Amino acid sequence: MSGSSSISEARWLAVTITLTTLSAITISVAAAYIFKRKCNALKSKITELESSLNSCSDKCASERQGRIRAQQLLRKQLTQPKSQNPNLTCYPMIPIGTVHSCFSTRYGTPRQPLLVPLARACLVFNTSRVPPASLEGLADYSHCWIIYVFHLNTDLEKLWKHPSQSGFKAKVRVPRLKGGRKGVFGTRSPHRPCPIGLTVAKVEAVQGNVILLSGVDLVDGTPVLDVKPYLPYCDSIQDAAVPNWLMEDNLFTVASVSFSEGFTSSLENCWIMAEKKSLYASPGEFQSLVTQVLAWDIRSLSQRNRPHDVFMKKEKDQLLGDTYDVDEHLDETTFDHKREQDSLNSTEVIYHLILEGLDVSYRIDQDGNVIVEKVSTFADNKLNSSYNYLTWKDKLR
Ligand SMILES: *[C@@H]1O[C@H](CO)[C@@H](O)[C@H](O)[C@H]1NC(C)=O
Ligand SMILES: *[C@@H]1O[C@H](CO)[C@@H](O)[C@H](O)[C@H]1NC(C)=O
Ligand SMILES: *[C@@H]1O[C@H](CO)[C@@H](O)[C@H](O)[C@H]1NC(C)=O
Ligand SMILES: *[C@@H]1O[C@H](CO)[C@@H](O)[C@H](O)[C@H]1NC(C)=O
């Protein structure tokens, strides 16, 4: 029983082994077959990828060729004389940012940079044109150059839409020469064939896509074309010469700035609303700004010669505060001469300086003493800046 059983077990085992071997062979054959098929599939895939890579490279090369050709064509067109190429006479330079400045109107905006150290502005970059990373490294400099557009010039439309009849004047009246004329390129008049301004400002802080600047001579809303770091080792020229007429500085300072009794309370009343949008910490700091701005005689030449209340005129935004030729001319033609004769006693004229949308009214007496009367909210207050003092508090001193 046990012998026959062991024989049959051995037979069974042999059969099992044979079957197992057979099935192993079958599996190997099948695996080899599958492997071969996979290999073939991969090979054809590689061939396919190779050919698509080749066609991509060809496409890239031809695109590159096309780009180079287009660039060459553009360069050629740009360097061709204007007469042969009447269509391509401008370069597509679109502003990259906008200035939100304490100077709401041109009147009071300093004539040169750094004259008013407390003059603050936020330069807000358009993030769809310049990513915030472009500002990386700028905060390491104390000052920067700003290239901008004189967007409030009254002659812009004529200059741009009808350049041939713009009547562009080669000479401008210079305030320091009491109206004497100089060639436009011998001055920094805003009325230039290309109304582009260049200024320098202190970099107080950089945050995201915004720079906080101080010492600015830029009016609110100024479009900015470029910003570059100020490099004292090459930008500052120790022995640079200027004409004598620029050395006589006394023309533009006032004798003193004082505040009337009611000033403080009128400012505090306005401050309740103004604080939320102000770049200044307190009414006291705002008052310091007023003092610094009015320490200069900000009136135009014609205002100084014939004191008159510019503010009462409808065209106030157009006329407020320009000393150069084009606006002097406007003064002549738009003002009511009778009124001017009535107001020759300068002490009676009230001037209005708009800072951060607040209307600061003041008088100036015959001896050049400024008396600041009061502050009120300006009816046309367009200022709606979200970059107020709180945004910058930790970055200022
Ligand atoms: C130039 O502009 C005029 C119209 O402004 C147009 O008809 C003409 O096709 C343009 N020429 C070229 C070379 O683009
Ligand atoms: C920012 O730039 C984009 C694209 O150039 C433009 O469409 C948009 O009007 C600009 N925004 C401002 C606030 O200027
Ligand atoms: C100008 O007006 C002030 C105050 O109204 C007056 O005190 C002064 O005498 C006047 N001066 C002249 C030259 O009329
Ligand atoms: C000022 O901005 C706020 C929010 O940023 C907005 O709700 C308000 O309408 C704006 N006011 C004006 C006058 O534009």
UniProtKB/TrEMBL annotation:
PROSITE patterns under this entry?
A: TSAA_2 (PS51668)
Transmembrane domains' residue ranges: 12-35
Which InterPro entries does the entry link to? TrmO-like_N, YaeB-like, YaeB-like_sf, YaeB_N_sf
Give the Pfam families listed for this entry.
TrmO_N (PF01980)
Q: Where is the TsaA-like domain?
A: 93-239
Coiled-coil positions are: none
For this UniProt record, the keywords arranged alphabetically read as follows: Membrane, S-adenosyl-L-methionine, Transmembrane, Transmembrane helix
| PANTHER family per the UniProt record, alphabetical | TRNA (ADENINE(37)-N6)-METHYLTRANSFERASE (PTHR12818)
Question: Which protein family is it in?
Answer: Belongs to the tRNA methyltransferase O family.
Record protein name field: TsaA-like domain-containing protein
Q: Which organism is it from?
A: Trifolium subterraneum (Subterranean clover)
